[in-house]
């Protein structure tokens, strides 16, 4: 069975974030890091080469595949700042309506600039997602 490519590493998070060339995106990343650290109570850690994750959970599928993943995290991708809302978005319709300007994937929140989001709504979204994941994977 294939092994997960994205694993926690010992790479220094601040060194990685300081290497982000775009100043605004770098500042947005530092702000998201602070928000996620406050909400989760976890220290940031690099997952793979480009994801800053907070906490972790262990999953096991019926197929037998299992692994570890961060409870939440983000990545400064080229097109957008990607925030990982691991619980997905189905249960957060009210928060999504209040959040601001963004797009989503299955569990990814794509943001051009952090200033486009209501920070308190983002904080609540991350908090509820992390609580949900901790409930599923205690």
How does the SSE layout of this entry go?
Blueprint: H1 13-18, H2 23-40, E1 44-47, E2 51-54, E3 57-60, E4 66-69, E5 72-76, E6 81-85, H3 93-99, E7 103-104, E8 108-111, H4 119-136
Antiparallel strand pairs: 1-2, 2-5, 3-4, 5-6, 6-8, 7-8
Helix pairs in contact: 2-4, 3-4
What would you note in describing this structure?
By secondary structure, the chain is α+β, with helices and mostly antiparallel strands. The chain has a single domain (13-136), classed as Alpha-Beta Complex (Aspartate Aminotransferase, domain 1). It has helices at residues 13-18, 23-40, 93-99, 119-136; strands at residues 44-47, 51-54, 57-60, 66-69, 72-76, 81-85, 103-104, 108-111. The strands form 2 sheets. It has a 6-stranded antiparallel sheet with strand order 1-2-5-6-8-7, covered by helices on one side. It is globular.
Beta-strand content bin: 15-25%
What would the CATH topology be? Answer: Aspartate Aminotransferase, domain 1
Question: What is the number of helices?
Answer: 4
What's the domain count? 1
Q: Helical percent range?
A: 25-40%
Sketch the topology as an H/E string, one letter per element: HHEEEEEEHEEH
Query: What is the 3D shape?
Result: globular
Give the C-level CATH assignment: Alpha Beta
N-to-C CA distance:
25 Å
Strand order of the largest sheet: 1-2-5-6-8-7
Main beta sheet: 6 strands, antiparallel
**CA gyration radius, whole angstroms:** 15 Å
CATH architecture: Alpha-Beta Complex
- Average pLDDT reading: 94
Secondary structure class reads alpha+beta
The stretches of 5 or more residues where confidence is low (pLDDT under 50) are none
């Amino acid at each position: 069975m294939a092994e997960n490519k994205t694993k926690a590493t010992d790479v220094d998070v601040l060194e990685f974030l300081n290497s982000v060339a775009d100043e605004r995106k770098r500042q947005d990343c530092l702000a998201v890091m602070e928000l996620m650290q406050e909400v989760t109570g976890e220290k940031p850690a690099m997952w793979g080469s480009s994801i800053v994750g907070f906490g972790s959970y262990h999953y096991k599928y019926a197929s037998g595949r299992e692994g570890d993943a961060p409870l939440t995290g983000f990545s400064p991708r080229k097109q957008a700042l990607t925030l990982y809302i691991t619980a997905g978005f189905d249960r957060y319709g009210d928060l999504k309506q209040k959040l601001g300007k963004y797009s989503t994937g299955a569990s990814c929140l794509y943001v051009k600039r952090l200033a486009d989001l209501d920070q308190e709504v983002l904080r609540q979204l991350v908090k509820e997602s992390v609580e949900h994941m901790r409930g599923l994977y205690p």
